[in-house]
Structures are given as structure tokens and as C-alpha cells.
């Protein structure tokens, strides 16, 4: 993956980033920004906000990269930084508003087996990005990041029940859109 | 298709999706990184300059104040044109005869070479000159009640003559030979004026005290689950965890106004801003989590002061009172397996406390005092966020500050 002649492997690249080597930072950005921008898009729902999150996320990464222990995947660490940055940004913008009414009316959801057939990644991304912010956040955290409801509740300051309901509603919302080919 | 299968398919489809952020994104990041580096340097430079400026101002203030105190400051240099015109026989007969100069309700006395005088040491009649004030650098009128037996002497704006030194000459040329004393008439009023204090407060005795939040949560069942700042313990206590909590030194800064009620008793109120720091580490088999909690409080104290000793350089007093504080915000900075996160929440309710202690104020000059107030404070259990105050309700505090007397 590392293609630049000055850095033979990822470890060397990361060490250069710790030293605030601007060339290394740029290379790291070029390698990971497409993946991380997709993460930002999923949470932000709009391109402009996603770009801001991406920028804040990379600044945090370059400031805190020294705290990456080296154990485990760097990409995993990076992804967590961006998810946290996205959540911080959404909190600041008061985007994370959850309706208790929605929680009360949440229903169990069972998707039809062919609902995802024929849909491409880009269309699905667009659908997820266009979800209401509460649904989108919980859906992303649970389905794509693997957080538990307990963790989601703590991170978002909501109850576990609310997290479950939001997820259930998010799935229902997505199924309706997929079924109606409304994307 | 059940939920798990649905989620899995979603992950497969968009889990590794990539999207190019667009042109200019890196430039924005790079520019922001540059700004941050510059900001650090500029901030440090400004902080140093500000510190130097404040220190220089303070030193200048002290120097000027001392210089003023050491000379006949009641009459500005520009209007010291007052000339004593004694009779020839007085000059010849009694060179040490004092002149009493009264400005407003203050009286100045001057003596002669190497022999400062006072009222007690002079047995003969004194000469009195009254000066009511000045306008535009000139003496304007000379009313006043004579306190000596001899008739009042007129003050004239005349050029200095050789036979007798002017007040100006006394002050500027013969400093050390003549002493001028302020009578105490005006001081009583001054000491009853309000004073303002700028202070900082720390609680050094418990700064490194460690308390386990887990143990505390078991002991104190009064914590509501929704209590904002039990968040630390709720959020970051995984199973089989080794944890440690440190409450760091609380820091307060405040502005206080003190109003004298009598010669010895005064009441004070003001506003105090306090920051409480806690640090929580949790290590489990597969995770490390560090949480820093910062609580911000704004307090309104009401205290009574009783001065039990007072001289020109020192004032000793006892104080006691009550303070109510409103929690403004709880801020959390979390580092989980090296991944940073931060968030904050509002704090509900009020924190009440009682305090009492003793203090000493060292007089720097007529309008400034440096004071030290060691005291104890008891913080009531008002269902506030976990902090050093909830862990140890009786706190030793040490307040240091500057008191400005008007």
C-alpha cells in the first residue's frame, strides 16, 4: 500500500507523521482520505459537513498519532478517531436529537430477502446518508462500527431502549426506501 | 432475512466504500496545521509579553506609590509656588520653628535640618498656612480655620527669594533634611471605604488524594442514575477492570467586594469561578480508557470578616460565611485505546458550602494589600457530580490575593 519511495512500510510512515513530517502527513492523507471521507459522509449526511469533519479528523490524527500504540490495525484506530470526530461535530450542531415518540412506536422489523438485490454501493451510501440524523447515527454506530447499544447510549447520552428503537426505525425506514426503489 | 443478515449485507456493500473528498481538502488541512503551529508560538509570545507588562505595571505602581509617599505629595510640583515669607526676626530667632500647612482636612508639618519635629516636640507657636486646593495647577483660594495662635499667613505667587527656601525647594533640594508628616485626620474615613479583592484559591491538602469511583458508587447510594457526572463511573467501568481515580487540585479565581460595617467588622460578597479536575484510568483485558473530567462552577460567597489585630503593615482577621455555587458545565475528555473523544454536559442543582478561617493582609501601600486566607470549607451533599468535594466534604483551602482599598 505504501508507494512513496521514502517510506518503505506503514510503521516508517507513522513514525514520520509523529515527527510532524509534512510529506508523510500528506501521504497518509492520500492513502486514507477516501475511506475516511466515506465514513464522514455516512455520519454527516451532507458533503460540506463531511468535509469539515474530515479536516478536523485529520488534524486530530496528526496531533494524536503519537498515542497510537502500534498494537492492532492503524486503520481501525483511524476509523475510531473519525467516528468520534463526527459524533462531536453532530453534538456541536445539535444534530443528535432523538424523539421519544419514535421510541414508543418502534416496531420489530423483518426485511424481505431480496430487498438489497440490485442496489449498488453508491446508491446505498446515498440512502444511508439521507436518513434522519438520529436513525443514521445509531444505524452507523451499530451496523457499520459494531458498537453495542450500551456503548451507543453512553456516547450519545440516550437510553439503551432509545438506541434500540432508533435502530429498529432506521432499518424500517431503509427497507421502505429499498422496497419502493426510492433512491 | 433477519436483522443480522441484513446488517451483514449492508456492511458488505458500504463498509469499504470510498469517496474522494475533492480538491482543496488537503490544502485546508495543511493550512490549519500551519495556523495551529503559528498560534502556539504567537500565544506563547503574547503570554510572555503580557506577563512582563503586568509585572512592569505592578512594579511601576509600587515605585511611584513609594516615591509619592516619601515626598510632600499633597501639592503637585507644578503648583508648588507657595512661599513662606517669615518676618526677619523669626528667621533669625527660631530656625527650627515649624510651619503647619493644611490642605483640606490634612495637615503637613515641616521641620528643620536633620531634626524632624512633631507637635509634641514643639512648644512655641506654630505658623499656619491654609491651602484649600488647586485648579489648573494654581492655588485658588486660602480659606480655612486657623489652628494656631498666630494670624494666618498669606500665600503669594512670587518668585523664590534667597533668604528663605520655598516649599518647592524644601521638597526637591533638601529632601531628608525636612520631613513632612500626614496627620491621621483623613485616615479614619479611608479605612471605612469598600475594598475589592482579586484572589485565587487552591486546596492543596487533598490534591493527590485517590479515591476509587467504583467504591464510592457502592457507598453512596444517593446518586441518581441520571446524575450527569456519575457518567464517568457509568461509562467507563468495563468488567474486570483495574481503575484509579485522582482528584486534582481545585483552582478558583474570584473578585470580591468588602464593605466595612464597623471598625472591625466587614461583610464581603462577590463572584468566584472554580474548576475541579478529576482523572480516571480504567484498564481491562482488552481496553484502556483514560477520562479527564473538568467541572466548572460559578459561586457567590457571603462572608463576614472580623479584624482582631491591625497596625500599619499588617491586618489579621477571622472570617466565616456561606457560598452557593452553580455548576456550569461538565467536560469530559476521553482517550480510549488511544482514540480521543470529548463531550460535555450541563450540571443540575446548586452546591452549598460553609467556610471559616483566619487571614493576614500585608499592606503593600495605601491602596493595596496582599492577603493570605487559609480556611476550611464544608461542602454539603447536594447531589452534585463526583469530585474532590463529594469524595471529601471537608476541604482545606488556601486563598491568596490582592486587596484594593478605595
Question: How would you characterize this protein structure?
Answer:
The complex is a heterodimer of chains A (183) and B (406). Chain A has 183 residues and is mainly alpha-helical. Chain A folds into two domains: 10-92, RNA polymerase sigma factor, region 2, helix turn helix motif (Rna Polymerase Sigma Factor, Chain: A); 100-179, Orthogonal Bundle (Arc Repressor Mutant, subunit A). Chain A has helices spanning 10-18, 22-44, 47-64, 74-92, 100-104, 121-129, 133-144, 149-156, 160-179. Chain B has two domains: 69-185, no CATH class; 189-405, Porin, CATH 2.40.160. Chain B is 22% helix and 38% strand. In chain B, the strands form three sheets. Chain B has an eight-stranded antiparallel beta barrel with strand order 6-8-9-10-11-13-14-15. In chain B, strands 2-1-3 form a three-stranded mixed sheet, with no helix packed on it. Chain B is elongated, with a radius of gyration of 34 Å. Chains A and B meet through helix 2, helix 3, helix 4, helix 6 and helix 7 of A and helix 1, helix 2, helix 7 and strand 12 of B.
What key phrases describe this protein's structure?
heterodimer; A: 183 residues; mainly alpha; Rna Polymerase Sigma Factor, Chain: A; Arc Repressor Mutant, subunit A; 9 helices; 0% strand; B: 406 residues; alpha+beta; Porin; eight-stranded antiparallel beta barrel; three-stranded mixed β-sheet
Amino acid at each position: 500500500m505504501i508507494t512513496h519511495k521514502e517510506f518503505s512500510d506503514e510503521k516508517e510512515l507513522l513514525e514520520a507523521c509523529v515527527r510532524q513530517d509534512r510529506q508523510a502527513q500528506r501521504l497518509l492523507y492520500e492513502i486514507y482520505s477516501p475511506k475516511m471521507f466515506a465514513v464522514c459522509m455516512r455520519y454527516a449526511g451532507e458533503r460540506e459537513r463531511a468535509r469539515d469533519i474530515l479536516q478536523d479528523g485529520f488534524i486530530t490524527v496528526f496531533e494524536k498519532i503519537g498515542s497510537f500504540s502500534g498494537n492492532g490495525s492503524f486503520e481501525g484506530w483511524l476509523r475510531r478517531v473519525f467516528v468520534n470526530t463526527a459524533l462531536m461535530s453532530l453534538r456541536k450542531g445539535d444534530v443528535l436529537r432523538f424523539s421519544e415518540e419514535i421510541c414508543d412506536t418502534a416496531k420489530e422489523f423483518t426485511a424481505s430477502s431480496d430487498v438489497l438485490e440490485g442496489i449498488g454501493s453508491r446508491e446505498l451510501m446515498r440512502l444511508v446518508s439521507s436518513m434522519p440524523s438520529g436513525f443514521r447515527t445509531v444505524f452507523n454506530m451499530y451496523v457499520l462500527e459494531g458498537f453495542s447499544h450500551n456503548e451507543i447510549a453512553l456516547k450519545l447520552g440516550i437510553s439503551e431502549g432509545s438506541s434500540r428503537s432508533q435502530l429498529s426505525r432506521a432499518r424500517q425506514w431503509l427497507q421502505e426506501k429499498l422496497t419502493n426503489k426510492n433512491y | 432475512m433477519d436483522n443480522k443478515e441484513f446488517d451483514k449485507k449492508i456492511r458488505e456493500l458500504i463498509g469499504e466504500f470510498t469517496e474522494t473528498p475533492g480538491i482543496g481538502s488537503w490544502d485546508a488541512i495543511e493550512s490549519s496545521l500551519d495556523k495551529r503551529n503559528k498560534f502556539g508560538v504567537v500565544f506563547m509570545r503574547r503570554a510572555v509579553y503580557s506577563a512582563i507588562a503586568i509585572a512592569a505595571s505592578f512594579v511601576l505602581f509600587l515605585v511611584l506609590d513609594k516615591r509619592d509617599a516619601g515626598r510632600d505629595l499633597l501639592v503637585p510640583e507644578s503648583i508648588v509656588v507657595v512661599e513662606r515669607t517669615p518676618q526677619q526676626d523669626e528667621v533669625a530667632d527660631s530656625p527650627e520653628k515649624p510651619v503647619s500647612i493644611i490642605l483640606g482636612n490634612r495637615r503637613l508639618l515641616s521641620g528643620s535640618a536633620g531634626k524632624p519635629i512633631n507637635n509634641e516636640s514643639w512648644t512655641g507657636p506654630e505658623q499656619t498656612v491654609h491651602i484649600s486646593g488647586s485648579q489648573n495647577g494654581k492655588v485658588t483660594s486660602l480659606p480655612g480655620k486657623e489652628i494656631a495662635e498666630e494670624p494666618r499667613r498669606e500665600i503669594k505667587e512670587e518668585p523664590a527669594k534667597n533668604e528663605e527656601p520655598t516649599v518647592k525647594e524644601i521638597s526637591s533640594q533638601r529632601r531628608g533634611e525636612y520631613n513632612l508628616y500626614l496627620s491621621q485626620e483623613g485616615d479614619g474615613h479611608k479605612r471605612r471605604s469598600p475594598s475589592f479583592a482579586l484572589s485565587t484559591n487552591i486546596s492543596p491538602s487533598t490534591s493527590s488524594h485517590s479515591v476509587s469511583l467504583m467504591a464510592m458508587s457502592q457507598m453512596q447510594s444517593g446518586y441518581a442514575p441520571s446524575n450527569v457526572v456519575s457518567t464517568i463511573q457509568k461509562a467507563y467501568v468495563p468488567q474486570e477492570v483495574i481503575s484509579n481515580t485522582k482528584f486534582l487540585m481545585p483552582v478558583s479565581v474570584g473578585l470580591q467586594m468588602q464593605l466595612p460595617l464597623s471598625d472591625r467588622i466587614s461583610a464581603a460578597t462577590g463572584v468566584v469561578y472554580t474548576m475541579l479536575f478529576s482523572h480516571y484510568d480504567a484498564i481491562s483485558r482488552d481496553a484502556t480508557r483514560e477520562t479527564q473530567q473538568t467541572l466548572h462552577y460559578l459561586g457567590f460567597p457571603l462572608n463576614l470578616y472580623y479584624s482582631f489585630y491591625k497596625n500599619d503593615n499588617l491586618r489579621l482577621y477571622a472570617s466565616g460565611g456561606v457560598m452557593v455555587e452553580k455548576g456550569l458545565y461538565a467536560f469530559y475528555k476521553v482517550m480510549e485505546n488511544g482514540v480521543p473523544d470529548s463531550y460535555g454536559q450541563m450540571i443540575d442543582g446548586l452546591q452549598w458550602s460553609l467556610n471559616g478561617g483566619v487571614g493576614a493582609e500585608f499592606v503593600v501601600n495605601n491602596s493595596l494589600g496582599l492577603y493570605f486566607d487559609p480556611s476550611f470549607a464544608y461542602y454539603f451533599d447536594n447531589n452534585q457530580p463526583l469530585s474532590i468535594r463529594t469524595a471529601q466534604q471537608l476541604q482545606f483551602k488556601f486563598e491568596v490575593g490582592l486587596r484594593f482599598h478605595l
